[in-house]
C-alpha cells in the first residue's frame, strides 16, 4: 500500500483491480481540515485519462511494472507490432492501449514496453523525442512581428506546428507531454 501523498508523476497504482499511472499531481490544503490530492491518471488497460480525488492519508495499492526494451516494427489500423531483439519474439499491442504514445514511436527504433503480470500495458515514451520532418509548406518571407507557425508532418504521421524556417528533412525536438515543437535537433 502507498499513501496518496506519494502519488507523484510516473507512479503506478491499482484501484479496483485497474492499473493507473499518474500524469499530473495537485495538492490542496485549505484552512482547517484535511488536504485534498487531485491527480490526472492514465488507465493503463484502455488508455483513458481520468481525474481522481483523494483525501490526505488515504492509501492505494502500488504496483511495479516490468519494462522490456523492444524494437517498434510498424502499426496497422488496429495494432502496433514490437519485437524482442534478443529472442525475436513478437508482441502485438492494440492501438487503444498505446493511445497517443504511438505518435512518438519511430519504426525500427527501440521503446520501453510496460508489462504487469505478463499483460502489456503500453509504452513509456521519453519527455521529448527527436523526429524528422517529411512534409511542410514553404514558409512565407517578409516582416513577421509575432511568432508565426505552420503545420509540419513527421515520419510517424504526427502533425506539429513549427516555425516558418523549418523545412522537410530537418530534425526537430518535440515535447511528448504537450505535443509541441521545442527546437531544432542537431
From TrEMBL:
Residues 129-184 form the Elongation factor P C-terminal domain. Pathway: Protein biosynthesis; polypeptide chain elongation. Residues 67-121 form the Translation elongation factor P/YeiP central domain. Pfam families: EFP (PF01132), EFP_N (PF08207), Elong-fact-P_C (PF09285). One of its GO terms (biological process) is peptide biosynthetic process. GO terms for molecular function: translation elongation factor activity. InterPro entries: Elong-fact-P_C, NA-bd_OB-fold, Rib_uL2_dom2, Transl_elong_fac_P/YeiP, Transl_elong_KOW-like, Transl_elong_P/YeiP_cen, Transl_elong_P/YeiP_CS, Transl_elongation_fac_P. It is found in: Cytoplasm. Keywords: Cytoplasm, Elongation factor, Protein biosynthesis. Transmembrane segments: none annotated. GO terms for cellular component: cytosol. Its main location: cytoplasm. It comes from the Bacteria. Involved in peptide bond synthesis. Stimulates efficient translation and peptide-bond synthesis on native or reconstituted 70S ribosomes in vitro. Probably functions indirectly by altering the affinity of the ribosome for aminoacyl-tRNA, thus increasing their reactivity as acceptors for peptidyl transferase. HAMAP family: EF_P. PANTHER family: ELONGATION FACTOR P, ELONGATION FACTOR P (EF-P) FAMILY PROTEIN. Belongs to the elongation factor P family. This is Elongation factor P. The gene is efp.
Amino acid at each position: 500500500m502507498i499513501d496518496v501523498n506519494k502519488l507523484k508523476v510516473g507512479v503506478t497504482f491499482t484501484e479496483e483491480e485497474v492499473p493507473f499511472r499518474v500524469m499530473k499531481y495537485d495538492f490542496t490544503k485549505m484552512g482547517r481540515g484535511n488536504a485534498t490530492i487531485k491527480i490526472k491518471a492514465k488507465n493503463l488497460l484502455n488508455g483513458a485519462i481520468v481525474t481522481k480525488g483523494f483525501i490526505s492519508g488515504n492509501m492505494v495499492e502500488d504496483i511495479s511494472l516490468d519494462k522490456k526494451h523492444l524494437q517498434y516494427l510498424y502499426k496497422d489500423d488496429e495494432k502496433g507490432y514490437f519485437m524482442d531483439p534478443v529472442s525475436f519474439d513478437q508482441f502485438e499491442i492494440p492501438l487503444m492501449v498505446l493511445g497517443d504514445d504511438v505518435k512518438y514511436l519511430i519504426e525500427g527504433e527501440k521503446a520501453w514496453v510496460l508489462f504487469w503480470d505478463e499483460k502489456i500495458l503500453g509504452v513509456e515514451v521519453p519527455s521529448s523525442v527527436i523526429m524528422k520532418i517529411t512534409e511542410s509548406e514553404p514558409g512565407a518571407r517578409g516582416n513577421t512581428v509575432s511568432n508565426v507557425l505552420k503545420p509540419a508532418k513527421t515520419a510517424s504521421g504526427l502533425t506539429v506546428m513549427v516555425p516558418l524556417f523549418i523545412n522537410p528533412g530537418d530534425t526537430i525536438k518535440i515535447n511528448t507531454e504537450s505535443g509541441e515543437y521545442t527546437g531544432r535537433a542537431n
